[in-house]
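FAQ
Q: What does a multi-component entry look like?
A: The components come first, one per line:
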Amino acid sequence: MSKVLKKLYIWLIILFLYAPIVVLMVYSFNDSRSRATWSGFTFRWYIELFQDRMILQALYYTITIALLSSVIATIIGTFAAIGIFGYKKLSFNLVRNISYIPVINADIVTGVSLMLLFVFLGINQGFFTLLIAHITFNIPYVIFSVLPKLYQMDVHVYEAAMDLGASPLTSILKVVIPEIRHGIITGFLLAFTLSLDDFVISFFTTGPGVNNLSIIIYSMARRGINPKINALSTLMFAVVMILLFVINKKSASNNHLEKKVRREI
Amino acid sequence: MKRWFSLPYLVWMVIFITVPLLLILFYAVTERTDQGLVFTANHFKQIFDPLYLKVFLRSFKIAFIATLICLALGYPVALFLASKDFPNSSTYLLLFVIPMWMNFLLRTYAWLTLLENNGIINQALELLGISKVQFLYNEGAVILGTVYNFLPFMVLPVYSVIVKIDESVIRAAQDLGANNIQVLLKVIVPLSLPGVISGITMVFMPSVSTFVISRLLGGGQFPLIGNIIEQQFLLTSNWGFGSALSFVLLVLVIISMFFTNMNNKDGKESIL
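Then the predicted structure of the entire assembly, as C-alpha coordinates:
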Protein backbone atom coordinates (compact mmCIF):
# COMPACT_ATOMS: atom_id res chain seq x y z
CA MET A 1 0.00 0.00 0.00
CA SER A 2 1.29 3.44 -0.74
CA LYS A 3 2.75 5.62 1.95
CA VAL A 4 0.11 8.30 1.45
CA LEU A 5 -2.72 5.87 2.09
CA LYS A 6 -1.05 4.57 5.22
CA LYS A 7 -0.55 8.12 6.52
CA LEU A 8 -4.16 8.98 5.73
CA TYR A 9 -5.39 5.94 7.62
CA ILE A 10 -3.26 6.69 10.69
CA TRP A 11 -4.41 10.32 10.74
CA LEU A 12 -8.07 9.30 10.44
CA ILE A 13 -7.69 7.12 13.52
CA ILE A 14 -5.92 9.97 15.32
CA LEU A 15 -8.79 12.27 14.37
CA PHE A 16 -11.21 9.75 15.89
CA LEU A 17 -9.19 9.72 19.14
CA TYR A 18 -8.86 13.49 19.39
CA ALA A 19 -12.27 14.71 18.17
CA PRO A 20 -13.93 14.54 21.61
CA ILE A 21 -10.90 16.12 23.26
CA VAL A 22 -10.99 19.06 20.87
CA VAL A 23 -14.74 19.45 21.41
CA LEU A 24 -14.24 19.43 25.15
CA MET A 25 -11.52 22.07 24.98
CA VAL A 26 -13.44 24.32 22.62
CA TYR A 27 -16.54 24.15 24.80
CA SER A 28 -14.55 25.21 27.86
CA PHE A 29 -14.55 28.67 26.21
CA ASN A 30 -18.27 28.58 25.43
CA ASP A 31 -20.29 31.35 27.05
CA SER A 32 -23.37 29.15 27.36
CA ARG A 33 -23.89 26.58 30.08
CA SER A 34 -25.47 24.13 27.71
CA ARG A 35 -23.35 22.00 25.46
CA ALA A 36 -25.86 22.21 22.63
CA THR A 37 -25.31 25.83 21.68
CA TRP A 38 -22.33 28.04 21.09
CA SER A 39 -22.96 31.56 22.33
CA GLY A 40 -19.60 33.25 22.23
CA PHE A 41 -16.10 33.14 23.63
CA THR A 42 -15.41 33.53 27.34
CA PHE A 43 -12.81 32.91 30.05
CA ARG A 44 -15.60 32.87 32.61
CA TRP A 45 -15.29 29.16 33.50
CA TYR A 46 -11.56 29.45 34.06
CA ILE A 47 -12.16 32.20 36.60
CA GLU A 48 -15.13 30.57 38.31
CA LEU A 49 -13.20 27.32 38.53
CA PHE A 50 -10.90 28.78 41.16
CA GLN A 51 -13.86 29.82 43.30
CA ASP A 52 -15.51 26.41 43.30
CA ARG A 53 -14.65 24.74 46.60
CA MET A 54 -16.00 21.32 45.60
CA ILE A 55 -13.93 21.11 42.44
CA LEU A 56 -10.79 22.46 44.10
CA GLN A 57 -11.12 19.97 46.92
CA ALA A 58 -11.57 17.11 44.46
CA LEU A 59 -8.49 18.31 42.58
CA TYR A 60 -6.57 18.35 45.87
CA TYR A 61 -7.60 14.77 46.69
CA THR A 62 -6.86 13.59 43.15
CA ILE A 63 -3.33 14.97 43.14
CA THR A 64 -2.50 14.04 46.74
CA ILE A 65 -3.67 10.46 46.24
CA ALA A 66 -1.87 10.19 42.90
CA LEU A 67 1.43 11.50 44.30
CA LEU A 68 1.38 9.55 47.56
CA SER A 69 0.21 6.29 46.02
CA SER A 70 2.66 6.39 43.13
CA VAL A 71 5.65 7.23 45.37
CA ILE A 72 4.80 4.50 47.88
CA ALA A 73 4.04 2.01 45.11
CA THR A 74 7.33 2.82 43.38
CA ILE A 75 9.33 2.15 46.56
CA ILE A 76 7.53 -1.07 47.51
CA GLY A 77 7.34 -2.23 43.89
CA THR A 78 11.02 -1.63 43.07
CA PHE A 79 12.22 -3.57 46.11
CA ALA A 80 9.61 -6.25 45.37
CA ALA A 81 10.94 -6.64 41.82
CA ILE A 82 14.54 -6.90 43.05
CA GLY A 83 13.48 -9.56 45.54
CA ILE A 84 11.27 -11.51 43.14
CA PHE A 85 14.10 -11.48 40.57
CA GLY A 86 16.07 -13.79 42.88
CA TYR A 87 13.23 -16.29 43.38
CA LYS A 88 13.24 -19.90 42.22
CA LYS A 89 11.07 -20.57 39.18
CA LEU A 90 8.01 -21.89 41.05
CA SER A 91 7.67 -19.10 43.61
CA PHE A 92 8.61 -16.56 40.94
CA ASN A 93 5.72 -17.69 38.74
CA LEU A 94 3.30 -17.75 41.66
CA VAL A 95 4.07 -14.19 42.78
CA ARG A 96 4.21 -12.95 39.19
CA ASN A 97 0.80 -14.40 38.37
CA ILE A 98 -0.88 -13.05 41.50
CA SER A 99 0.65 -9.61 40.84
CA TYR A 100 -0.63 -9.77 37.28
CA ILE A 101 -4.25 -10.18 38.43
CA PRO A 102 -4.85 -6.49 39.29
CA VAL A 103 -3.37 -5.50 35.92
CA ILE A 104 -5.85 -7.41 33.78
CA ASN A 105 -8.66 -7.81 36.27
CA ALA A 106 -11.84 -5.83 35.63
CA ASP A 107 -11.58 -2.62 37.66
CA ILE A 108 -15.00 -3.19 39.10
CA VAL A 109 -13.92 -6.56 40.52
CA THR A 110 -10.78 -5.04 42.07
CA GLY A 111 -12.87 -2.21 43.52
CA VAL A 112 -15.57 -4.47 44.90
CA SER A 113 -13.05 -6.92 46.37
CA LEU A 114 -11.25 -4.15 48.26
CA MET A 115 -14.55 -2.74 49.46
CA LEU A 116 -15.46 -6.19 50.83
CA LEU A 117 -12.08 -6.32 52.62
CA PHE A 118 -12.56 -2.92 54.26
CA VAL A 119 -16.07 -3.82 55.36
CA PHE A 120 -14.87 -7.22 56.61
CA LEU A 121 -12.14 -5.56 58.69
CA GLY A 122 -14.53 -2.88 59.91
CA ILE A 123 -12.48 -0.01 58.49
CA ASN A 124 -14.42 3.18 57.74
CA GLN A 125 -13.94 4.11 54.10
CA GLY A 126 -12.35 7.45 53.29
CA PHE A 127 -8.98 8.95 52.39
CA PHE A 128 -7.00 6.11 53.94
CA THR A 129 -8.84 3.30 52.14
CA LEU A 130 -8.70 5.24 48.88
CA LEU A 131 -4.93 5.56 49.26
CA ILE A 132 -4.53 1.85 50.03
CA ALA A 133 -6.61 0.92 46.99
CA HIS A 134 -4.52 3.13 44.71
CA ILE A 135 -1.23 1.77 46.08
CA THR A 136 -2.56 -1.75 45.55
CA PHE A 137 -3.36 -1.35 41.87
CA ASN A 138 -0.20 0.71 41.27
CA ILE A 139 2.44 -1.66 42.68
CA PRO A 140 2.10 -4.33 39.95
CA TYR A 141 2.69 -1.72 37.21
CA VAL A 142 5.94 -0.72 38.92
CA ILE A 143 7.02 -4.36 39.32
CA PHE A 144 6.34 -5.16 35.67
CA SER A 145 8.20 -2.03 34.52
CA VAL A 146 11.24 -2.82 36.66
CA LEU A 147 11.52 -6.62 36.13
CA PRO A 148 12.53 -6.46 32.42
CA LYS A 149 15.27 -3.96 33.29
CA LEU A 150 16.64 -6.39 35.89
CA TYR A 151 16.86 -9.08 33.22
CA GLN A 152 18.72 -6.70 30.93
CA MET A 153 21.17 -5.83 33.70
CA ASP A 154 24.51 -7.56 34.10
CA VAL A 155 24.24 -9.34 37.48
CA HIS A 156 28.03 -9.47 37.73
CA VAL A 157 28.07 -5.73 38.40
CA TYR A 158 26.14 -6.36 41.61
CA GLU A 159 28.42 -9.24 42.56
CA ALA A 160 31.48 -7.09 41.86
CA ALA A 161 30.18 -4.40 44.23
CA MET A 162 29.72 -7.06 46.93
CA ASP A 163 33.22 -8.44 46.29
CA LEU A 164 34.62 -4.97 46.72
CA GLY A 165 33.13 -4.86 50.19
CA ALA A 166 29.80 -3.07 49.69
CA SER A 167 26.94 -4.27 51.88
CA PRO A 168 23.93 -5.78 50.03
CA LEU A 169 21.89 -2.63 50.66
CA THR A 170 24.69 -0.33 49.43
CA SER A 171 25.17 -2.42 46.30
CA ILE A 172 21.47 -2.26 45.60
CA LEU A 173 21.24 1.49 46.16
CA LYS A 174 24.49 2.45 44.40
CA VAL A 175 24.71 -0.15 41.66
CA VAL A 176 21.40 -1.85 40.92
CA ILE A 177 18.98 1.09 41.27
CA PRO A 178 20.96 3.34 38.85
CA GLU A 179 21.04 0.45 36.34
CA ILE A 180 17.27 -0.05 36.44
CA ARG A 181 16.30 3.61 36.85
CA HIS A 182 14.52 3.82 33.49
CA GLY A 183 12.19 1.02 34.56
CA ILE A 184 11.58 2.72 37.90
CA ILE A 185 10.74 6.05 36.23
CA THR A 186 8.42 4.37 33.73
CA GLY A 187 6.70 2.52 36.56
CA PHE A 188 6.29 5.70 38.59
CA LEU A 189 4.83 7.67 35.67
CA LEU A 190 2.48 4.81 34.79
CA ALA A 191 1.34 4.56 38.41
CA PHE A 192 0.83 8.32 38.67
CA THR A 193 -1.25 8.55 35.48
CA LEU A 194 -3.37 5.53 36.35
CA SER A 195 -4.10 6.93 39.78
CA LEU A 196 -4.96 10.35 38.38
CA ASP A 197 -7.46 8.87 35.92
CA ASP A 198 -8.99 6.15 38.05
CA PHE A 199 -12.71 6.17 38.57
CA VAL A 200 -14.11 2.68 39.12
CA ILE A 201 -11.82 1.49 41.94
CA SER A 202 -12.02 4.88 43.70
CA PHE A 203 -15.81 4.85 43.41
CA PHE A 204 -16.01 1.66 45.49
CA THR A 205 -13.26 2.36 48.01
CA THR A 206 -13.82 5.97 49.02
CA GLY A 207 -16.08 7.28 51.73
CA PRO A 208 -18.41 10.24 52.18
CA GLY A 209 -16.78 13.62 51.64
CA VAL A 210 -13.68 12.26 49.92
CA ASN A 211 -14.13 12.57 46.18
CA ASN A 212 -11.62 12.66 43.38
CA LEU A 213 -12.31 14.46 40.11
CA SER A 214 -13.59 11.33 38.36
CA ILE A 215 -16.20 10.76 41.04
CA ILE A 216 -17.35 14.39 40.81
CA ILE A 217 -17.58 14.14 37.04
CA TYR A 218 -19.58 10.92 37.24
CA SER A 219 -22.05 12.43 39.70
CA MET A 220 -22.38 15.52 37.48
CA ALA A 221 -22.91 13.54 34.27
CA ARG A 222 -26.59 12.98 34.91
CA ARG A 223 -27.41 16.65 35.31
CA GLY A 224 -24.97 17.84 32.68
CA ILE A 225 -21.32 18.52 33.23
CA ASN A 226 -20.42 22.01 34.35
CA PRO A 227 -18.12 23.80 31.86
CA LYS A 228 -15.83 24.53 34.81
CA ILE A 229 -14.82 20.87 34.68
CA ASN A 230 -13.99 21.23 30.99
CA ALA A 231 -11.86 24.24 31.85
CA LEU A 232 -10.03 22.33 34.59
CA SER A 233 -9.38 19.36 32.29
CA THR A 234 -8.10 21.64 29.56
CA LEU A 235 -5.67 23.18 32.06
CA MET A 236 -4.53 19.77 33.35
CA PHE A 237 -4.10 18.51 29.81
CA ALA A 238 -2.01 21.57 28.95
CA VAL A 239 0.20 20.99 32.01
CA VAL A 240 0.75 17.35 31.02
CA MET A 241 1.61 18.39 27.46
CA ILE A 242 4.16 20.94 28.68
CA LEU A 243 5.73 18.43 31.08
CA LEU A 244 5.85 15.85 28.31
CA PHE A 245 7.55 18.30 26.00
CA VAL A 246 10.17 19.21 28.63
CA ILE A 247 10.85 15.55 29.56
CA ASN A 248 11.10 14.59 25.90
CA LYS A 249 13.61 17.32 25.19
CA LYS A 250 15.64 16.37 28.23
CA SER A 251 15.63 12.64 27.59
CA ALA A 252 16.44 13.22 23.93
CA SER A 253 19.62 15.04 24.94
CA ASN A 254 20.35 12.37 27.59
CA ASN A 255 19.98 9.60 25.01
CA HIS A 256 22.27 11.47 22.73
CA LEU A 257 24.87 11.73 25.47
CA GLU A 258 24.53 8.08 26.39
CA LYS A 259 25.00 6.97 22.79
CA LYS A 260 28.06 9.16 22.50
CA VAL A 261 29.60 7.71 25.65
CA ARG A 262 28.86 4.16 24.47
CA ARG A 263 30.54 4.82 21.17
CA GLU A 264 33.65 6.17 22.87
CA ILE A 265 33.91 3.13 25.11
CA MET B 1 20.07 -10.64 45.06
CA LYS B 2 18.37 -10.34 48.38
CA ARG B 3 15.04 -12.06 48.28
CA TRP B 4 13.77 -10.51 51.52
CA PHE B 5 13.49 -7.16 49.75
CA SER B 6 10.17 -8.39 48.45
CA LEU B 7 8.84 -9.11 51.93
CA PRO B 8 6.84 -5.85 52.41
CA TYR B 9 5.21 -6.43 49.05
CA LEU B 10 4.40 -10.08 49.80
CA VAL B 11 2.56 -9.01 52.96
CA TRP B 12 0.75 -6.30 50.97
CA MET B 13 -0.09 -8.72 48.16
CA VAL B 14 -1.62 -11.30 50.48
CA ILE B 15 -3.71 -8.76 52.42
CA PHE B 16 -4.85 -6.54 49.55
CA ILE B 17 -4.91 -8.82 46.50
CA THR B 18 -5.34 -12.43 47.61
CA VAL B 19 -7.63 -12.02 50.62
CA PRO B 20 -10.07 -9.63 48.86
CA LEU B 21 -10.44 -12.06 45.94
CA LEU B 22 -11.10 -14.91 48.38
CA LEU B 23 -13.69 -12.68 50.08
CA ILE B 24 -15.52 -12.39 46.76
CA LEU B 25 -15.72 -16.18 46.58
CA PHE B 26 -16.76 -16.29 50.24
CA TYR B 27 -19.64 -13.84 49.77
CA ALA B 28 -20.67 -15.58 46.54
CA VAL B 29 -21.16 -19.00 48.14
CA THR B 30 -22.59 -18.03 51.52
CA GLU B 31 -25.89 -16.67 52.66
CA ARG B 32 -26.98 -15.25 56.00
CA THR B 33 -30.08 -17.05 57.24
CA ASP B 34 -31.81 -17.50 60.59
CA GLN B 35 -29.49 -20.42 61.33
CA GLY B 36 -26.44 -18.23 60.72
CA LEU B 37 -24.07 -18.36 57.79
CA VAL B 38 -24.76 -21.23 55.37
CA PHE B 39 -23.29 -22.31 52.08
CA THR B 40 -25.50 -21.78 49.06
CA ALA B 41 -25.48 -22.04 45.29
CA ASN B 42 -28.38 -19.61 44.96
CA HIS B 43 -26.27 -16.65 43.93
CA PHE B 44 -24.78 -18.56 41.04
CA LYS B 45 -28.21 -19.95 40.08
CA GLN B 46 -29.57 -16.40 39.95
CA ILE B 47 -27.19 -15.65 37.07
CA PHE B 48 -29.24 -18.02 34.93
CA ASP B 49 -32.41 -16.06 35.57
CA PRO B 50 -33.48 -15.04 32.01
CA LEU B 51 -33.35 -11.37 33.02
CA TYR B 52 -29.67 -11.56 33.99
CA LEU B 53 -28.77 -14.08 31.34
CA LYS B 54 -29.84 -11.48 28.79
CA VAL B 55 -27.53 -8.90 30.37
CA PHE B 56 -24.69 -11.43 30.31
CA LEU B 57 -25.21 -12.20 26.64
CA ARG B 58 -25.45 -8.51 25.79
CA SER B 59 -22.22 -7.72 27.65
CA PHE B 60 -20.35 -10.48 25.85
CA LYS B 61 -21.83 -9.50 22.51
CA ILE B 62 -20.85 -5.84 22.91
CA ALA B 63 -17.38 -6.68 24.24
CA PHE B 64 -16.85 -9.21 21.44
CA ILE B 65 -17.89 -6.79 18.69
CA ALA B 66 -15.85 -3.94 20.24
CA THR B 67 -12.77 -6.18 20.49
CA LEU B 68 -13.16 -7.26 16.85
CA ILE B 69 -13.46 -3.64 15.70
CA CYS B 70 -10.43 -2.66 17.81
CA LEU B 71 -8.47 -5.49 16.21
CA ALA B 72 -9.61 -4.56 12.70
CA LEU B 73 -8.80 -0.86 13.24
CA GLY B 74 -5.76 -1.28 15.45
CA TYR B 75 -3.83 -4.05 13.70
CA PRO B 76 -3.23 -1.98 10.53
CA VAL B 77 -2.18 0.98 12.70
CA ALA B 78 0.42 -1.18 14.47
CA LEU B 79 1.52 -2.74 11.20
CA PHE B 80 1.93 0.60 9.41
CA LEU B 81 3.73 2.29 12.31
CA ALA B 82 6.19 -0.61 12.51
CA SER B 83 6.94 -0.31 8.78
CA LYS B 84 9.76 1.70 7.25
CA ASP B 85 7.30 4.37 6.11
CA PHE B 86 7.15 5.69 9.65
CA PRO B 87 10.71 6.32 10.84
CA ASN B 88 9.40 8.57 13.60
CA SER B 89 6.94 5.98 14.89
CA SER B 90 7.59 6.82 18.56
CA THR B 91 6.03 10.25 18.03
CA TYR B 92 2.96 8.64 16.47
CA LEU B 93 2.76 6.12 19.31
CA LEU B 94 2.81 9.00 21.76
CA LEU B 95 -0.20 10.44 19.92
CA PHE B 96 -2.05 7.22 20.78
CA VAL B 97 -1.13 7.48 24.45
CA ILE B 98 -1.78 11.20 25.01
CA PRO B 99 -5.62 10.97 25.01
CA MET B 100 -5.38 8.71 28.05
CA TRP B 101 -4.13 11.70 30.01
CA MET B 102 -7.49 13.34 29.75
CA ASN B 103 -10.08 11.96 32.12
CA PHE B 104 -11.83 9.06 30.38
CA LEU B 105 -15.25 9.97 31.77
CA LEU B 106 -14.97 13.43 30.25
CA ARG B 107 -13.75 12.08 26.91
CA THR B 108 -16.66 9.68 26.80
CA TYR B 109 -19.04 12.42 27.84
CA ALA B 110 -17.73 14.67 25.06
CA TRP B 111 -19.13 12.16 22.55
CA LEU B 112 -22.59 13.33 23.64
CA THR B 113 -21.79 16.77 22.23
CA LEU B 114 -20.76 15.18 18.96
CA LEU B 115 -23.51 12.60 18.62
CA GLU B 116 -26.71 13.98 20.15
CA ASN B 117 -29.71 14.92 18.04
CA ASN B 118 -28.66 18.57 17.86
CA GLY B 119 -25.02 17.62 18.10
CA ILE B 120 -22.13 18.62 15.89
CA ILE B 121 -22.30 15.61 13.57
CA ASN B 122 -26.05 15.85 13.06
CA GLN B 123 -25.80 19.58 12.35
CA ALA B 124 -23.14 18.82 9.76
CA LEU B 125 -25.38 16.16 8.22
CA GLU B 126 -28.24 18.64 8.07
CA LEU B 127 -26.06 21.14 6.23
CA LEU B 128 -25.32 18.43 3.69
CA GLY B 129 -29.03 17.84 3.29
CA ILE B 130 -28.99 14.43 4.95
CA SER B 131 -31.65 13.69 7.54
CA LYS B 132 -30.65 13.42 11.19
CA VAL B 133 -29.50 10.12 12.62
CA GLN B 134 -30.25 8.86 16.12
CA PHE B 135 -26.71 7.96 17.21
CA LEU B 136 -27.10 7.90 20.97
CA TYR B 137 -28.77 5.60 23.47
CA ASN B 138 -28.45 2.37 21.53
CA GLU B 139 -26.03 -0.52 21.48
CA GLY B 140 -24.08 1.08 18.66
CA ALA B 141 -23.25 4.09 20.85
CA VAL B 142 -22.03 1.81 23.63
CA ILE B 143 -19.84 -0.09 21.15
CA LEU B 144 -18.47 3.19 19.78
CA GLY B 145 -17.60 4.40 23.28
CA THR B 146 -15.90 1.11 24.08
CA VAL B 147 -13.84 1.10 20.86
CA TYR B 148 -12.92 4.72 21.45
CA ASN B 149 -11.69 4.12 24.98
CA PHE B 150 -9.78 0.89 24.46
CA LEU B 151 -8.37 1.12 20.91
CA PRO B 152 -4.90 2.23 22.16
CA PHE B 153 -4.75 -0.92 24.31
CA MET B 154 -4.86 -2.94 21.08
CA VAL B 155 -2.40 -0.82 19.09
CA LEU B 156 0.40 -0.72 21.68
CA PRO B 157 0.94 -4.45 22.42
CA VAL B 158 0.57 -5.43 18.74
CA TYR B 159 3.04 -2.75 17.69
CA SER B 160 5.61 -3.77 20.30
CA VAL B 161 5.57 -7.35 18.96
CA ILE B 162 5.58 -6.52 15.23
CA VAL B 163 8.45 -4.05 15.60
CA LYS B 164 10.62 -6.81 17.11
CA ILE B 165 10.11 -9.25 14.21
CA ASP B 166 13.48 -10.13 12.74
CA GLU B 167 13.67 -8.51 9.34
CA SER B 168 15.78 -11.30 7.90
CA VAL B 169 12.80 -13.65 8.35
CA ILE B 170 10.73 -11.37 6.14
CA ARG B 171 13.53 -11.09 3.58
CA ALA B 172 13.96 -14.87 3.56
CA ALA B 173 10.26 -15.25 2.76
CA GLN B 174 10.58 -12.74 -0.06
CA ASP B 175 13.68 -14.51 -1.41
CA LEU B 176 11.70 -17.74 -1.45
CA GLY B 177 9.16 -16.05 -3.69
CA ALA B 178 6.45 -14.90 -1.33
CA ASN B 179 4.54 -11.80 -2.39
CA ASN B 180 3.56 -9.03 0.04
CA ILE B 181 0.22 -10.61 0.93
CA GLN B 182 1.82 -13.98 1.58
CA VAL B 183 4.52 -12.37 3.75
CA LEU B 184 1.81 -10.66 5.77
CA LEU B 185 -0.41 -13.70 6.20
CA LYS B 186 2.23 -16.42 6.59
CA VAL B 187 5.02 -14.57 8.41
CA ILE B 188 3.99 -11.33 10.11
CA VAL B 189 0.52 -12.32 11.33
CA PRO B 190 1.60 -15.63 12.96
CA LEU B 191 4.64 -13.98 14.57
CA SER B 192 2.49 -11.14 15.94
CA LEU B 193 -0.02 -13.45 17.66
CA PRO B 194 1.37 -12.94 21.20
CA GLY B 195 0.75 -9.20 20.79
CA VAL B 196 -2.72 -9.83 19.40
CA ILE B 197 -3.60 -12.09 22.33
CA SER B 198 -2.45 -9.54 24.86
CA GLY B 199 -4.30 -6.81 22.94
CA ILE B 200 -7.49 -8.86 22.94
CA THR B 201 -7.19 -9.36 26.71
CA MET B 202 -6.50 -5.68 27.31
CA VAL B 203 -9.59 -4.67 25.30
CA PHE B 204 -12.04 -7.46 26.11
CA MET B 205 -11.75 -7.39 29.90
CA PRO B 206 -12.48 -3.69 30.42
CA SER B 207 -15.18 -3.82 27.71
CA VAL B 208 -17.09 -6.71 29.21
CA SER B 209 -17.05 -5.15 32.68
CA THR B 210 -17.60 -1.46 31.95
CA PHE B 211 -20.50 0.24 33.65
CA VAL B 212 -19.67 3.84 32.85
CA ILE B 213 -19.80 3.76 29.05
CA SER B 214 -23.14 1.96 29.00
CA ARG B 215 -24.49 4.46 31.52
CA LEU B 216 -23.33 7.55 29.65
CA LEU B 217 -23.82 6.61 26.01
CA GLY B 218 -26.48 3.93 26.38
CA GLY B 219 -28.60 6.17 28.60
CA GLY B 220 -28.99 3.36 31.12
CA GLN B 221 -31.23 1.36 28.80
CA PHE B 222 -28.59 -1.24 28.02
CA PRO B 223 -27.30 -2.48 31.37
CA LEU B 224 -24.15 -4.61 31.20
CA ILE B 225 -22.66 -6.97 33.80
CA GLY B 226 -20.82 -4.01 35.33
CA ASN B 227 -24.05 -2.08 35.84
CA ILE B 228 -25.67 -5.07 37.56
CA ILE B 229 -22.66 -5.52 39.86
CA GLU B 230 -22.72 -1.82 40.75
CA GLN B 231 -26.43 -2.09 41.47
CA GLN B 232 -26.02 -5.12 43.75
CA PHE B 233 -23.38 -3.43 45.87
CA LEU B 234 -24.58 0.16 45.98
CA LEU B 235 -28.35 0.02 45.58
CA THR B 236 -29.92 -3.31 46.46
CA SER B 237 -27.21 -4.51 48.87
CA ASN B 238 -27.37 -8.02 47.49
CA TRP B 239 -23.66 -8.59 47.98
CA GLY B 240 -23.91 -12.33 47.46
CA PHE B 241 -25.23 -12.01 43.92
CA GLY B 242 -22.86 -9.14 43.17
CA SER B 243 -19.97 -11.29 44.35
CA ALA B 244 -21.11 -14.24 42.22
CA LEU B 245 -21.14 -11.99 39.13
CA SER B 246 -17.71 -10.59 40.05
CA PHE B 247 -16.42 -14.12 40.50
CA VAL B 248 -17.47 -15.03 36.95
CA LEU B 249 -15.45 -12.06 35.64
CA LEU B 250 -12.52 -13.17 37.78
CA VAL B 251 -12.61 -16.64 36.23
CA LEU B 252 -12.45 -14.99 32.79
CA VAL B 253 -9.35 -13.10 33.90
CA ILE B 254 -7.66 -16.28 35.07
CA ILE B 255 -8.47 -18.02 31.76
CA SER B 256 -6.97 -15.13 29.78
CA MET B 257 -3.89 -15.18 32.03
CA PHE B 258 -3.42 -18.82 31.10
CA PHE B 259 -3.31 -17.85 27.41
CA THR B 260 -0.88 -14.99 28.05
CA ASN B 261 1.38 -17.31 30.04
CA MET B 262 1.50 -19.88 27.25
CA ASN B 263 3.19 -17.26 25.11
CA ASN B 264 5.57 -16.15 27.79
CA LYS B 265 6.73 -19.32 29.52
CA ASP B 266 9.88 -18.11 31.23
CA GLY B 267 8.22 -14.87 32.35
CA LYS B 268 11.10 -12.76 31.11
CA GLU B 269 9.20 -10.90 28.45
CA SER B 270 7.77 -7.56 29.42
CA ILE B 271 4.01 -7.94 29.71
CA LEU B 272 2.98 -4.32 30.01
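Q: Is there any commentary attached?
A: Sometimes. For this entry: The longest helix of chain A spans residues 227-264.
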